[in-house]
Amino acid sequence: MELTNWRQLSDRGSDLVPCLDFPGGRAAAGFAEMAAGVPVDACFLHFRQAGAGPLAACVDRWADELLATGRPVRAVLGYCVRPVARWPASSRRRWSPTPGI
Hints:
Layout (H helix, E strand, L loop, with lengths): L5 E6 L4 E5 L10 H7 L5 E5 L7 H14 L8 E2 L2 H11 L10
Parallel strand pairs: 2-3, 2-4
Antiparallel strand pairs: 1-3
Helix pairs in contact: 2-3
């Protein structure tokens, strides 16, 4: 399955680690640099620019696409609290994270 809402940062395992941050907010290293340097067997993904609509709808769309892969979501990382805080509320009944990183 091709992910349309996500950009792959690294691919070193089947578990997914979605990273949520809005562009332009980091003067120093961001998730791409972290994913390249972390010795974890997981696939790190960064969401593509959000489309139109409320944040809750965007987060639901992002979560639905990842859940459709059938791959476990190992963690959800974020700089901005709103998308990360919204994530469990939108999908808590549909996925169960594996033990943390």
